[in-house]
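2024-03-11 09:14:02 INFO worker-7 job=invfold-0412 stage=load source=structure_tokens
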């Protein structure tokens, strides 16, 4: 059995235990973890806060304005759900934790409405800075 197959079986077992969380949510959190790790200058343990920020950023990068709806569709409605996913993956041996890691570290990480709607980073999605004023319209030639 390959490592990939074993991991898929472990995640499917988690899904059976917590049917309200979609399989895609587990893979998304693993993807966010990978992205956070990739952006670090050297390999080290990733904190709950860092992972939550990674989930928020990756969700916006991938799903834009629909990020909250996508996560909620997968059963992830609060940062505590991300903690549940992480500690489920730890219980299955997919991830490891330190003695200091606790599921409570994921509590109240950020509010989904604020993170994905109220404080939506428009410049991140547009690839440019947001302007408070509309752009100037050049004078049109007289006909």
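2024-03-11 09:14:09 INFO worker-7 stage=emit residues=143
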């Amino acid at each position: 059995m390959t490592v990939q197959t074993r991991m898929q079986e472990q995640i499917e077992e988690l899904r059976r235990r917590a049917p309200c969380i979609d399989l895609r949510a587990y893979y998304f959190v693993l993807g966010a973890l990978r992205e956070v790790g990739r952006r670090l200058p050297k390999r080290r343990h990733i904190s709950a806060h860092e992972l939550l920020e990674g989930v928020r950023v990756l969700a916006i990068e991938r799903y834009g304005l629909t990020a909250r709806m996508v996560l909620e569709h997968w059963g992830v409605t609060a940062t505590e759900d991300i903690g549940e996913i992480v500690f489920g993956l730890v219980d299955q041996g997919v991830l490891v934790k330190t003695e200091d890691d606790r599921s409570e570290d994921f509590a109240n990480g950020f509010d989904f409405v604020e993170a994905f709607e109220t404080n939506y980073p428009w410049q991140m999605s547009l690839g440019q800075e947001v302007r408070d004023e509309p752009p100037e319209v050049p004078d049109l030639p007289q006909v």
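2024-03-11 09:14:09 INFO worker-7 stage=report msg="The mean pLDDT is 87."
2024-03-11 09:14:10 INFO worker-7 job finished
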